[in-house]
Amino acid sequence: MAKKLLLLLLLIILSSHANCGSIVKFLPGFEGPLPFQLETGYIGVGDQEQVQLFYYFIKSEKNPTEDPLLIWLTGGPGCSSITGLLFENGPVTFKVEGYNGGTPTLLSTTYSWTKVANIIFLDQPVGSGFSYATTQFLDSPSDSGEAKRIHEFIRKWLSEHKEFISNPFYVSGDSYSGKIIPAMVQEISKGNDLGFKPQINLEGFVIGNPVTDTEFEHNQRIPFAHGMALISDELYESLERSGKGNYDNIDPHNTECLKHFDEFLKEYTDLLSSLWANDESVREALHVVKGSIDKWVRCSSGKPYDSDIKSSVPYHINNSIKGYRSLIFSGDHDLMAPFISTQAWIRSLNYSIVEKWRPWMIHNQVAGYTQTYANKMTYATVKGGGHTPEYKPKESFIMFQRWISGQPL
Fold first, then answer.
1. What is the pLDDT confidence band of residue 263, given thresholds at 50, 70 and 90?
2. How many domains would you assign to the chain?
3. Is residue 199 part of a domain?
4. What CA–CA distance (Å, rounded) separates 318 from 159?
C-alpha cells in the first residue's frame, strides 16, 4: 500500500509539469526526421486535474495558421487515438509486409487529413492509450461525462496554444464517438454562450460510421446483412417472423448470422501497434510519463463505463438549431453501424432536402453517394468502405477535403 501511495504521489508531482507539450522530431521505426510537426503532451482535467489526458497534435501541412483545427476522437469506448493516428487518417502508418521482428517500421501516408487540417488525436476516456489518473478513486467514465471532460480539455489546450484560437474548430471522430461528439458540440456551444474563455471558434463536426441510437443500429443490422447477401432469404424471413421487426429480442444462440455483430477483426496491425507503443524508446520519444501506465493496449475493454447517452439524436437537433454544419459519412460495407441505420435516424430529424441523393465522383468514378439537408448537414457514403476511414483512405480524404473547404462533394 505504501508503495502504491508513493507512486501516486510521484505521478501527481509529474503531472504538475506535464501540461507543457513537447515537440517530437524523430520516432522509432521512421527513417529520418518527421516530415510534419508533431507535439505530444498531457492536459489535466477534472478535480485537481486528477485525469491526465494524453494527446498527439499534428500541424497542418498546408497552412496551419489558417487551416481548421480538429480534435479526433476514436471509438470503443476506450480505444487509443493511435488507431486514428496510425490506421485511419494520420500522416504515418505501419509497414506490414515483410515484418520480421524488432521495432515496427513506420511509413508516410498519402492521404492524411493533416494535409489540410491541424488535428489533435486524443486518448480518452482516462485509461485509454497513454492517458492516466493520479488517483485510484475516480468515478467511472460516461458518455455525458466525457463530453464535459473533453470540452474542458480543448479550452485548456487552446489556452496553451493561443495561436489556434481563431482557427475554425471542428469536433470529429468515428464509431462510438458518435455518442459523444454531438453532446460535446452542445457543451462547447453552451460554454461559448456563457462566456467561457477562451472562446472556441466552433463551426461544426464530422462523424464517420457513428454509433448514434442502439435501437436504430440493432434493428437495421439484419436487414443490412440480408441486403448485402450475407444471409439467405429464408433465414431473413425466419428472423423477420420471429423478431416482428425488433431484432433485439432474438436469441443470438439460435441465429448463425448474429455472429457477425460483435466480430472484431484482429489484424496483424494490432500486434504491430502493441509492440511499437510498448517499446521504451517509443515512450521516451513521445514523452510519456514513466510509470503512468503499465502495458499499452489498443482498446481497453472490460473497464467500467456508463453508456448514459442512449441516443445522440436530440443533440443533433440542438446543434442544428444553433447552425453548426456537419458531415456524417458511412462506409457502405460496415455491419457495426450500417448505413441504413444512419439514414434512418437522419430521416427522423425531418429536415428538408437541399440536394437530392446523387453519386459523388473521383476521376469520373463513383466514390459514393451523398445528400445535403437544410440544417447544414451533409450525408455521404463511401463506396466499398468499412467501419473506419482506413479501408478507403483516398476516397475518405477527398470527401473530407472537399467538405471542409466548402465545396460540394
1. very low
2. 1
3. yes
4. 27
Range 185-189, long-range pairs (CB < 8 A, 24+ positions): 185/315, 185/319, 185/324, 186/147, 186/315, 186/318, 186/319, 187/147, 187/148, 187/151, 188/151, 188/154, 189/319, 189/322, 189/324
Within a domain: residue 180?
yes
Q: Are 189 and 181 in contact (CB under 8 A)?
A: no
124's grid cell: 480518452
Helix, strand or coil, per DSSP, at residue 401: helix
Q: Which residues pair with residue 118 across a beta bridge?
A: 69
Residue range 300-342, pLDDT digits in tens: 877 889 999 999 999 999 999 999 999 999 988 777 788 878 9
CA 109 centroid distance within chain: 19
Confidence bin at 118 (pLDDT 50/70/90): very high
Other CB atoms within 10 A of residue 268 CB: 11
**β-sheet bridge partners, residue 380:** 329, 370
| pLDDT tens profile 272-281 | 999 999 999 9
**What mean pLDDT value characterizes the chain?**
86
Tell me if 324 sits within 8 A of 203, measured CB to CB. yes
Kindly give, in sequence order, each residue whose CB lies less than 8 Å from that of residue 262, ignoring residues fewer than 6 positions away: none
HSE at residue 266, side-chain half, CA atoms within 13 A, is: 5
Write out the catalytic residue numbers: 175, 334, 387
pLDDT at position 34 is: 97
**Can you tell me the distance from the alpha carbon of 179 to that of 75, in angstroms, rounded to the nearest whole number?**
9
Residue 279: its pLDDT value, please? 95
Residues 6+ apart with CB under 8 A from 348: 313
Q: What is the CATH number of the domain that holds 114?
A: 3.40.50.1820
Sign of the torsion angle spanned by Cα atoms 147, 151, 153, 154: positive
Band the pLDDT of 41: cuts 50, 70, 90: very high
- Mean pLDDT score, 142-164: 97
- The whole domain housing 384 covers 2-218+262-404
Instruction: Specify the DSSP element, H or E, that contains 318.
Output: helix 313-321
Within a domain: 208 = yes
Residue 232 lies in a domain: no
Task: State the Cα–Cα distance between residues 196 and 378, nearest whole angstrom.
Answer: 29
